[in-house]
Design brief:
The chain has 315 residues and is of the alpha+beta class. It has twelve helices and 14 strands. It has two domains: 198 residues, D-amino Acid Aminotransferase, Chain A, domain 1 (2-Layer Sandwich), CATH 3.30.470.20; 86 residues. The protein is 31% helix and 23% strand. The strands form three sheets. Strands 12-11-10-9-8-13-14 form a seven-stranded antiparallel beta sheet. Strands 1-7-2-3 form a four-stranded antiparallel beta sheet. The longest helix is centred in the last third of the chain and has 15 residues. The radius of gyration is 19 Å and the shape is globular. The chain starts with 6 loop residues before the first helix and ends with a helix.
């Protein structure tokens, strides 16, 4: 069954709609002059590194077309890597390389691509094909996250990520996005990934949602996704709080990955996070938004805000 509710039930569940999110939350709490810091993944990464926030290692940046011709020595130094547009959105333009086969590069699904293909793809990135507003862009080449063993049996090929919604520096909702065959191994709900709701206080998973339909099993692995305890949960929420402090936005989506060697790492930030976290948790954002908005003087320390986040009730 799909997650469909009457207007009265939606109001009771305090579901946040797109217009209300934009008018009452994003416009009010997110100063426009701060957007470039989160819309540009390279700026976000550089800012995070300056504050010792863990992010995937940066291998290189391609900024102009002439540099595309000199890529081979850089790529030769790495068996695995990720190419992504600095100003891309929705996972568009991201190419993941998991190994080599002769002169070709292997994608997570086993497909082989040539060096010429990579050059052409990066040229498209620079032209703005995947960027917000179609503006000219840069291509980031970085460390490929190695998924934590906890997620290996839960996910299809790709690396899951954890989306934490942070409001006024306090986490108010979270979900894990699990790649599927339909999403081509990407943690993208619009492409068919599973959104698995998470209880803030305990880090225990709720039921999931896939294309607006509630599920308790991953469609490909057939593993149960309900009632699982996410490892390093306090560290994940702490990282989300620090990321909100880093950029100064009042309403923020923080995407975190769990690397099996390096632990929680910030992948990217979003100044206009989508509302699918409500579907994943089967509960609206309004309840916790109102609670945090009503607090005149919020704690300044990360530890106190972590405690506050874990006392918020989604029921």
């Amino acid at each position: 069954m799909g997650w469909i509710a009457s207007p009265l039930k939606l109001k009771r569940l305090t579901v946040l709609g797109l217009n209300k999110r934009n008018a009452d939350v994003v416009m009010r709490y997110n100063p426009r002059h701060l957007y470039p810091l989160v819309d540009d993944k390279l700026k976000t990464k550089q800012k995070a590194l300056s504050q010792q926030i863990s992010v995937p290692e940066l291998y290189g940046v391609v900024e102009i077309q002439h540099q595309v011709k000199t890529l081979e020595p850089l790529l030769a130094a790495h068996t695995e890597f990720v190419i992504k547009p600095a100003q891309g959105s929705g996972g568009n333009g991201i190419v993941v390389i998991v190994g080599r086969f002769g002169k070709n590069y292997k994608k997570p699904n086993g497909d082989l691509i040539s060096f010429d293909f990579i050059q052409h793809h990066i040229s498209n990135v620079l032209s703005g094909m995947y960027s917000l507003g179609g503006v000219t862009d840069k291509a980031i080449i970085e460390y490929r996250v190695q998924s934590d063993p906890f997620f290996e049996s839960l996910s299809y090929q790709g690396v899951p990520d954890i989306r934490v919604i942070v409001f006024r520096g306090v986490p108010i909702a979270a979900m894990v996005r699990l790649p599927t065959r339909a999403s081509d191994g990407k943690a993208n709900l619009h492409q068919g990934a599973v959104g698995m709701g998470i209880d803030l206080a305990t880090g225990i998973s709720r039921k999931g949602v896939i294309r607006n339909k509630i599920c308790t099993l991953h469609p490909d692995t057939e593993k149960n996704i309900e009632g699982l305890t996410i490892p390093n949960w306090n560290a994940i929420l702490t990282l989300a709080i620090r990321c909100a402090d880093l950029v100064g936005l009042g309403y923020l989506g923080v995407d975190i990955v769990m690397d099996k060697y390096l632990g929680p790492m910030m992948l990217e930030l979003n100044a206009r996070p989508g509302l699918n976290v409500q579907l994943a948790n089967q509960q609206g954002l309004g309840h916790n938004l109102d609670k945090v908005a009503a607090i005149t003087q919020l704690p300044t320390s990360v530890e106190e805000r972590l405690t506050l986040a874990q006392t918020l009730s989604l029921n």
